[in-house]
Amino acid sequence: MLKPPWVFPRPSGLSAGHDVRRLLRELRLATVCESARCPNRGECFGAGTATFLILGEVCTRRCGFCANVKGSPGPPDPNGPAAVAAAVRRLGLAYVVVTSVTRDDLPDGGAGHFAATIRAIRENDTEAPRHTGVAGGAFELPAPRCAGVLVEVLIPDFAGSAGALETVLAAGPAVLNHNLETVPRLYPRVRPGALYKRSLALLRRSREIAPAITTKSGLMVGFGEQIDEVVAAMRDLAAAGVSALTIGQYLQPGRESLPVDRYWLPEEFAALEEAGRAAGIAQVAAGPLVRSSYRAREAYHRLAEH
Question: Helix, strand, coil proportions of the chain in percent (round to 5)?
Answer without folding.
Answer: 40, 15, 45
